[in-house]
Amino acid sequence: MEIGLHKVQDTTMSTYNSPLLLGAALSLIAAALHFSCIFWGADGFRFLGAGEPIVSMSAAGHWYPPVVAFAIGAVLTTWALYAFSGAGVIRPLPLLRAALIGITAIYLLRAVAFPLLKPAFPDNSPTFWFVTSAICLVFGLTHLLGLLQVWKRI
Questions:
Q1: What is the pTM of this model?
Q2: pLDDT, tens digit, 9 for 90 and up, residues 32-55
Q3: 151: helix, coil or strand?
Q4: What is residue 33's three-state secondary structure?
Q5: Based on the number of CB atoms within 10 Å of its own CB, is 63 exposed (0-12), middle (13-18) or buried (19 or more)?
Q6: Residues 6 or more apart from 3 whose CB is under 8 A from it?
Q7: Are 65 and 75 contacting, i.e. CB atoms less than 8 angstroms apart?
Q8: 16-34 pLDDT per residue, tens
Q9: N or C: which end of the chain has fewer CB within 10 A?
Q10: If residue 120 lies in a helix (H) or strand (E), which one and from where to where?
Q11: Do the Cβ atoms of 129 and 112 come closer than 8 Å?
Q12: d(Cα 97, Cα 120) in Å, to the nearest integer?
């Protein structure tokens, strides 16, 4: 934008990479859902489509479900931080390019590899696999678009 003879740089959100901002927000939402299961308990795990063994363990007060929910939430939060870094919102994090490649690849692989994962989690419903695979596909494609846009900068 011009003011008189001086140029003033527009410092709005347009300076950030929108797909990676969206990817960060999506990862944070997914992390929050996983963290909520720690407090919500069996009903939270059931609502999010966990298999009956996890729901039963949570209802019985077993340590395993909340620890797994916390671990997944922590990973997703870390992924959000890397997406924010790639978007230019926070300073560049270590191994930024490699991390964004890995995050994108994991989301996309999770989206398409569910037939290979299903036998390891036989109690998860077909709806769970369809919905979570679609979510991972959207997350992965969002990260991929952002990554391609910032490739030369990171």
A1: 0.87
A2: 999 999 999 999 999 998 889 999
A3: coil
A4: helix
A5: exposed
A6: none
A7: no
A8: 999 999 999 999 999 999 9
A9: N
A10: none
A11: no
A12: 31
